[in-house]
């Protein structure tokens, strides 16, 4: 019987930091000798972002909402293609790859996904925000480090 490998979830987005974290993960956490499962997790902004009203209170047409939804789908596909290209460029041995696309608040979706997927490890990039920006915007990686139900590896881009 073949030995079961680790299930490693890598949170990816449009940033260089997340793609660097994926490369780091492939080079440092994935072993050629085990049947690892790599889950590429992308979180689209919540549909509530595409509200029926813009800031001044004008109603968006259904065409505009459709365009925004298509943009979100295209962006998710683009991010996944970039991530898969990185995986192809690094010899990953017997790795199985899955794509998971969630929608909503990134920190909550990521923590929920690692629990549902029964992940062994979560790997994330860090944007390296300073104290004030992190205080205002919050840090997804910091939140996940505290709340995810598995070990979390936060990779800083050099």
Number of domains: 1
Strand content: 15-25%
Strand numbers in spatial order across the main sheet: 3-2-1-4-5
Which fold name fills CATH's third level, the topology? Rossmann fold
Helix content: 40-55%
Q: Which radius of gyration do the C-alpha atoms yield?
A: 17 Å
CATH top level class name: Alpha Beta
What separation lies between the terminal Cα atoms? 41 Å
Structural class: alpha/beta
The profile of the biggest β sheet is:
5 strands, parallel
- pLDDT averaged residue by residue: 82
Number of strands: 5
CATH level-four homologous superfamily name: HUPs
Q: Uncertain segments of ≥5 residues (pLDDT<50)?
A: 49-53
| Envelope shape | globular
Assigned CATH architecture: 3-Layer(aba) Sandwich
- How many distinct helices? 5
Order of helices and strands: EHEHEHEHHE
Spell out the key features of this protein:
158 residues, alpha/beta, five-stranded parallel β-sheet, 5 helices, 43% helix
Structure description:
- The structure is a single chain.
- With 158 residues, this protein is an alpha/beta fold.
- It has one domain (4-156): HUPs (Rossmann fold, 3-Layer(aba) Sandwich).
- The chain contains five helices and five strands.
- It has helices spanning 16-28, 62-89, 106-117, 131-137, 140-147, and strands at residues 4-11, 35-44, 96-103, 121-126, 152-156.
- It has a five-stranded parallel sheet.
- The protein is globular and about 50 Å long.
- It starts with a strand and ends with a strand.
- Mean pLDDT is 82; it is low at 49-53.
